[in-house]
């Protein structure tokens, strides 16, 4: 078990990539904190982990609210005594072409995908620096590297996550804390699977591997980067995209 006795927080842990990551970490021996805004999803994932022999704590958290984020960290430390890993997975989309995008569409995506990552990274880092160890993993996207039609707001946040990750790696490395980002491509999350079949086929055709990624594909990478096997990896961005950007 690569994450035995580790304590890991996964934001947006109630569905999709976050859910898969929470379950993977639990399989690898971690004590998992599932942080999400949907209590039903939290309870379901927590129960499934416990039924599989894992250990999990569920917390309702809005990552935009710094007070709630700080409470998440303090409750984790109170319950488990430490925070070894945080996966900043929570995110939203509100797509529109530049000339059609409304101010509230831009602002809410920036708030969740960028400020939310900042809030969680900062709060976790304070504990990790004191411990002298820790791993901060954040969800970027191939969209953040290459841009995408209709996603000015989303692309901006995911590029911003990369900038924060590299900065944190430089600041926190000497304190024993690593920071890396993961950039998924087209992943078969519940949101994506609701798209028309024609759109899904187009996504598959763009990738040399000719398929969508699975949430587990991303979770497997998070598990590696969170483990001691990746102890000399920091400040990097790893794509999980089936070669779609080649």
Topology (SSEs and partners):
Elements: E1 7-11, H1 16-27, E2 31-36, H2 39-51, E3 55-60, H3 66-80, E4 85-88, H4 103-131, E5 134-139, H5 142-146, H6 152-172, E6 177-184, H7 190-193, H8 197-206, H9 215-226, E7 237-240
Parallel strand pairs: 1-2, 1-4, 2-3, 4-5, 5-6, 6-7
Helix pairs in contact: 1-9, 3-4, 4-6
GO molecular function, one term: NAD binding
Function: Catalyzes the NADPH-dependent reduction of beta-ketoacyl-ACP substrates to beta-hydroxyacyl-ACP products, the first reductive step in the elongation cycle of fatty acid biosynthesis.
Keywords: Fatty acid biosynthesis, Fatty acid metabolism, Lipid biosynthesis, Lipid metabolism, NADP, Oxidoreductase
List keywords for this structure.
single chain, 246 residues, alpha/beta, Rossmann fold, seven-stranded parallel sheet, 9 helices, 49% helix, quinone binding, Sc_DH/Rdtase_CS, 3-oxoacyl-[acyl-carrier-protein] reductase, fatty acid metabolism
Overview of the molecule:
- By secondary structure, the protein is of the alpha/beta class.
- It is globular.
- The longest helix is centred in the middle third of the chain and has 29 residues.
- A 7-stranded parallel β-sheet has the order 3-2-1-4-5-6-7, with helices on both faces.
- β2, α2 and β3 form a beta-alpha-beta unit.
- The protein has a single domain, classed as Rossmann fold (3-Layer(aba) Sandwich).
Q: Beta-strand percentage?
A: 15-25%
State the helicity in percent bands: 40-55%
* Overall number of structural domains: 1
The major β-sheet equals: 7 strands, parallel
Give the H and E element order.
Answer: EHEHEHEHEHHEHHHE
Structural class of the secondary structure composition?
alpha/beta
- Stretches where pLDDT falls below 50 for ≥5 residues? none
Shape: globular
Whole-angstrom Rg: 17 Å
Please state how the strands of the largest beta sheet are arranged side by side.
3-2-1-4-5-6-7
Q: Termini distance? A: 34 Å
- Architecture, CATH level 2? 3-Layer(aba) Sandwich
Number of helices: 9
- Total strands: the figure is 7
CATH topology: Rossmann fold
> In CATH, what is the homologous superfamily?
NAD(P)-binding Rossmann-like Domain
CATH class category name: Alpha Beta
pLDDT averaged over residues: 96
Protein name: 3-oxoacyl-[acyl-carrier-protein] reductase
Subunit structure: Homotetramer.
Keywords: Fatty acid biosynthesis, Fatty acid metabolism, Lipid biosynthesis, Lipid metabolism, NADP, Oxidoreductase
GO molecular function: 3-oxoacyl-[acyl-carrier-protein] reductase (NADPH) activity; NAD binding; quinone binding
């Amino acid at each position: 078990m690569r994450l035995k006795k580790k304590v890991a927080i996964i934001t947006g842990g109630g569905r999709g990539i976050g859910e898969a990551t929470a379950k993977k970490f639990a399989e690898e021996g971690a004590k998992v904190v599932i942080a999400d805004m949907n209590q039903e999803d939290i309870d379901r994932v927590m129960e499934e982990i416990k039924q599989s022999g894992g250990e999990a704590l569920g917390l309702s958290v809005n990552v935009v609210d710094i007070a709630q984020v700080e409470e998440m960290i303090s409750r984790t430390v109170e319950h488990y005594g430490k925070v070894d890993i945080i996966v900043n997975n929570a995110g939203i989309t509100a797509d529109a072409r530049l000339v059609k995008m409304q101010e509230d569409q831009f602002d809410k995506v920036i708030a969740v995908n960028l400020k939310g990552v900042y809030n969680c990274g900062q709060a976790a880092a304070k504990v990790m620096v004191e411990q002298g160890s820790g791993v901060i993993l954040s969800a970027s996207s191939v969209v953040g590297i290459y841009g995408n039609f209709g996603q000015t707001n989303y692309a901006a946040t995911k590029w911003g996550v990369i900038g924060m990750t590299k900065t944190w790696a430089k600041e926190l490395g000497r304190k024993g804390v690593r920071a890396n980002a993961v950039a998924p491509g087209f992943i078969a999350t519940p949101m994506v699977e609701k798209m028309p079949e024609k759109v899904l086929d187009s996504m598959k055709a763009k990738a040399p591997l000719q398929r969508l990624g699975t949430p587990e594909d991303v979770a497997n990478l998070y598990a590696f980067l969170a483990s001691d096997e990746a102890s000399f990896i920091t400040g990097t961005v790893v794509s999980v995209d089936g070669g779609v950007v080649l």
